[in-house]
Design brief:
With 194 residues, this protein is of the alpha+beta class. It has one domain. 25% of the residues lie in helices and 35% in strands. The chain is built from 4 helices and 15 strands. Strands 2, 3, 6, 7, 8, 9, 10, 11 and 12 form a 9-stranded antiparallel beta sheet that branches. A two-stranded antiparallel sheet has the order 1-15. Strands 4-5 form a two-stranded antiparallel ribbon. A hairpin with a 5-residue loop joins β6 and β7.
Length: 194
């Protein structure tokens, strides 16, 4: 989502965006500008040299598992620090149809979803695993493979209501933003109408 030129900065800013996404995205590692990192890292458990997030569990599958309802304390800390519209990169747990997941475990831990926000550039949801979970890709232990289109459609449907809340969380009108996506015209129309 790109914000049009001349739109004044929002009141809630970055914390409001992450709060709008909490039902599908739990921020567990947030970098604010160059000066601040808020991370919920386990002080003991690692995968190689990478610390696991608190309540992130390694599994026999390709993705780590996480407990639901994480991230609210990170959002509360962002509000408490009054970060406004500072640039943010957030990594964390994602909700899929059958539960909450963390990172792809393939020799190292890889992000599944990354949320970026900067004013006035806007909001971006990055899907570094070739569009997974919104595309028909399936993470396996050592590679990405073809997945099920119906599962990808279900993931998009699960996430769409939260993504539609992002614009409102910023407090900007529909005509003050432009949505861009590679996920098809119907998805784009729904976001633009939100």
């Amino acid at each position: 989502m790109r914000v049009n030129e001349g739109v004044p900065p929002p009141g809630g800013g970055t914390a409001a965006i992450l709060e709008a996404l909490l039902e599908v995205f739990a921020p567990l590692d947030v970098s604010v500008g160059d000066d601040l990192q808020i991370a919920r890292l386990d002080p003991v458990r690692t995968f190689g040299t990478t610390p696991l997030w608190c309540d992130e569990e390694l599994t026999r599958g390709a993705l780590t598992r996480c407990k639901p309802t994480l991230g609210t304390d990170v959002v509360a800390e962002l509000y408490a620090r009054a970060i406004g519209t500072s640039p943010v990169i957030a990594r964390g747990a994602i909700r899929l149809e059958d539960g909450w997941y963390g990172r792809w475990c393939s020799g190292a831990l890889h992000d599944v979803v990354v949320v970026r926000f900067a004013w006035p550039a806007g909001f971006a949801l990055e899907l570094p695993l070739r569009g997974y979970p919104f595309t028909a890709i399936r993470p396996l232990a050592k590679r990405l493979d073809r997945g099920d289109r119906a599962v990808a459609a279900a993931h998009r449907a699960l996430w769409l209501p939260a993504l539609c809340k992002v614009r409102a969380a910023l407090g900007v009108d529909r005509d003050e933003v432009r949505w861009e996506t590679t996920l098809g015209k119907d998805f784009l129309r729904t976001l633009a109408a939100s």
